[in-house]
Amino acid sequence: LKKILDGYNDLKSFYGENIKKWRLIFSILLSGLYEEEFTKWCSEMKVKKKDTDIVSKTISDLPDLKKKLTSAKFKNSQLYLLLRNAVPELQAILYSAGSNIKKNILHYAHDLKDISLDIKGENLMEMGFKHGPEIGRALDFLLALKLDGKIKNAEEEMTMAKYLLKSKFSS
Questions:
Q1: How far apart are CA 70 and CA 63, in angstroms?
Q2: Which of 78, 54, 56, 57 is nearest to 68 (CA)?
Q3: Secondary structure of residue 108 in the 3-state scheme
Q4: Distance CA 14, CA 170 (A)
Q5: CA gyration radius for the chain?
Q6: 91-118 burial, b if ≥16 CB within 10 A, otherwise e?
Q7: 3-class DSSP state of 72
Q8: Per-residue pLDDT of the chain (171 residues; tens, 9 = 90+)
């Protein structure tokens, strides 16, 4: 428990009010319950739905994410994809699971989680991309390039987007 709380303290500076110590402790204490039992208990204890969902996600995602994160090295875009939907409480628990995982969590929290594109879907539609899923695919591809250091600013994002449009990426 001490290692997990140390992880909480280290990650709190990155997540602020989005990480709650009580949810972290609940996740640990209630991890042995079946989903139905856990949900019923939270309802009886008047735990807010949002908090119940976060604790539930922490418990259910832990084994799979722990297994995936044991790899020592990821491309930035791969690590971002693995952790972008992982709630901070889950990251705090994983933080205590070994040095490789700790390094990956710190790298994500410190260097990757706040990276975003300078261009938006509207910019792509103005270029000729069709409204719909292709815009999301193009934005995801551009973000992966930015995370991996292959493009760095709005101008390079626009240049790559034009290339994607010409290369029939959008069809």
A1: 11
A2: 78
A3: helix
A4: 36
A5: 19
A6: bbbbbbbeeebbebbbbbbeebbeeebe
A7: coil
A8: 899 999 999 999 999 999 999 999 999 999 888 889 999 999 999 999 999 999 999 999 999 999 999 876 899 999 999 999 999 999 999 999 988 999 999 999 999 999 999 999 999 999 888 888 888 999 999 999 999 999 999 999 999 998 988 886 655
